[in-house]
Amino acid sequence: MEYAFLTALKRCCCQVLLAVCGGFFAPMVWAHPHSFIDMQTTLVTKDQQLLGFKMIWVMDPITSADLLYDAGKAQAGSEIWKKLAAEVMARVLTQHYFTVLYRDGKPLKYRDLPSEYSLSRQGNQAVLEFILPLAHPQPLQGKPLSLSTFDPTYFVDMTYKNQQALQMPADVAALCKISLFTPAPNASLQAYALSLDKSDAPPEDMDLGQQFAQKVTLQCQ
């Protein structure tokens, strides 16, 4: 499986599509965003330390269509699903998991490869699950941690439906509070984002996606 993943990563790094889109799905509609991902995240912890995050990304039906077509009637866990999972995960890796994590104003690093990942079918939607491992475990206590997941170009809308999409182990929940903040960009920024068609890309220094990105804050006592 790791060989398939590394092969897919090498191939995906060469794809022009990624350089143009900044995302990992081909645009399917005329205005931003083009694809939609419903996210769920669970803290991975041990001995009062944060090791990483288990992420579940449920893709919208249009975005999922090509993946599900390629999978056909293959059984879950089959070689076809493993190959597709490796290809999608490789694209995610080219964008550093589409995720930033900060503590005390400093970005924290991740390991180069996920500790596990899989792709599956949920009705007419594709579901990517993976564990994003930190390069170095972080003590839960101390200054708050701030997590955001987004496509910088805003071609892909990546959101949590509500607070319940964020989970942590029971022993951690007794000590920690997790909060979800959803920004409200002004009308002119929203209009600009909606005006972009599939051939447009916002200036890199604008960081359009981050201006729409939700922020998850973890504070432990």
Description:
With 221 residues, the chain is an alpha+beta fold. Helix content is 29%, strand content 34%. It is built from seven helices and eleven strands. It has helices spanning 2-13, 16-21, 61-71, 79-94, 170-173, 187-195, 208-212; strands at residues 35-46, 49-59, 99-103, 106-107, 116-122, 125-139, 145-149, 156-159, 166-167, 176-181, 215-220. The strands form two sheets. Strands 1, 2, 5, 6, 8 and 9 form a six-stranded mixed beta sheet that branches. Strand 3 and strand 4 form a beta hairpin. Helix 1 (2-13) packs across helix 4. It is globular and about 50 Å long. The protein starts with a helix and ends with a strand. Residues 5-30 have low confidence and may be disordered.
